[in-house]
């Protein structure tokens, strides 16, 4: 499929200079195709909003962003009441340029919204409908990305958090990547944005999700849910069923209309808390053993921590070295050798490894 071939380029453009944020960009793609929403939890200054903005520009979608606070008014998100029509006795909202007309929405500190804001958001997130007074419109929303420093303790807010099917927890860049952070941050300041993949193209994939055959995954997926329940991780029926859309989207991005066991990895991101995700990763390690995705491989690898999920990333890194991209050949070779023995390395990666060794010899 032509669209899937553009996904990698879109992700690379949007994350250029942002160390370790490919996972976020990939999950935005997955969620947008499945028409689900993503919650990103992490401390300030971890490039959450920067990556979301660049993804929105790369996809060239109608974008709305807002930082919520305790005193944020509903009109700041949804639009003001049309005073002319109000004088005529009709309560209508002018939504031009506001959240109800956006295709991609980013709400920072999303849990600080008032009850009135969150209740209105529920209708938009769930039904893609905005209702206020006499104003009732169908929203073109493809994905809402919410962000917060932490998950809420309040039961009411936790129920709202549950409407975000995917939960991603991000940390600051590790100490051993600080040099890369500095170089990448400087690069990101001046990186150009190219709209290599349009939101309309992703919508075409969204329309095809329902055509994906899921027969092969019902049994292993049911086994995974039972395993989680046996270990105290209980997902709501709604989350379990909606996960099928993510699995179908993962298969579709991988160029297939038949989902199989390698596409079960999105289940990891449906588990709601960081502790539960870490526990679930261990519980499901056998089910996740063959997880892989040719386009969303960072997200698949982070979810499963399985060698098979690393293959596509290592192939891309090796090709980047051969194409004279700014990648350290020696570090790529070390990671390849750390993950594969001589008799287990897949043939495509084996050939690339040999080319990298020849390149080092030529430059010696």
Automatic annotation (TrEMBL):
Protein name according to UniProt: AAA family ATPase
Signal peptide location: none
Listed PANTHER family: ATPASE RAVA
CDD domains with a match to the protein in the record: AAA
Gene source species: Frischella japonica
InterPro entries found in the cross-reference section: AAA+_ATPase, MoxR, P-loop_NTPase, RavA-like_AAA_lid, RavA_ATPases
Domain of life: Bacteria
Pfam family, one: bpMoxR
Domain AAA+ ATPase: 34-174
């Amino acid at each position: 499929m032509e669209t899937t071939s553009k996904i990698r380029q879109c992700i690379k453009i949007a994350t250029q200079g942002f160390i370790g944020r490919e996972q976020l960009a990939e999950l935005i793609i997955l969620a947008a195709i499945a028409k689900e929403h993503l919650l990103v939890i992490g401390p300030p200054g971890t490039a959450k909003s920067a990556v979301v903005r660049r993804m929105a520009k790369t996809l060239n979608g109608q974008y709305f962003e807002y930082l919520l606070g305790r005193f944020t008014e509903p009109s700041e998100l949804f639009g003001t009441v049309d005073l002319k029509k109000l004088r005529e006795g009709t309560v209508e909202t002018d939504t031009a340029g506001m959240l109800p007309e956006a295709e991609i929405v980013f709400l920072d500190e999303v849990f600080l919204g008032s009850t009135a804001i969150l209740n209105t958001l529920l209708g938009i997130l769930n039904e893609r409908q905005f209702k206020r007074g006499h104003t009732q419109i169908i929203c073109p929303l493809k994905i809402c990305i919410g962000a917060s420093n932490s998950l809420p303790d309040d039961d009411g807010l936790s129920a709202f958090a549950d409407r975000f099917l995917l939960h991603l927890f991000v940390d600051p860049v590790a100490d051993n990547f600080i040099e890369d952070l500095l170089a990448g941050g400087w690069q990101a300041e001046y990186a150009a944005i190219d709209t290599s993949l349009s939101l309309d193209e992703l919508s075409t994939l969204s329309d095809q999700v329902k055509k994906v055959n899921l027969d092969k995954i019902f049994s292993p997926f049911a086994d995974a849910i039972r395993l989680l329940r046996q270990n105290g991780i209980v997902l709501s029926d709604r989350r379990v069923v909606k996960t099928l859309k993510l699995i179908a989207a993962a298969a579709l991005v991988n160029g297939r209309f038949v989902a199989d066991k390698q596409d079960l990895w999105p289940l990891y991101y449906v588990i709601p808390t960081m502790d539960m995700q870490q526990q679930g990763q261990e519980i499901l390690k056998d089910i996740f053993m063959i997880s892989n995705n040719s386009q969303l491989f960072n997200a698949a690898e982070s979810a499963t921590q399985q060698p098979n999920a690393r293959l596509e990333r290592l192939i891309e890194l090796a090709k980047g070295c051969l194409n004279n991209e700014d990648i350290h050949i020696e570090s790529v070779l070390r990671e390849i050798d750390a993950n594969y023995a001589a008799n287990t390395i897949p043939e495509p990666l084996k050939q690339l490894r040999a080319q990298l060794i020849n390149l080092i010899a030529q430059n010696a």
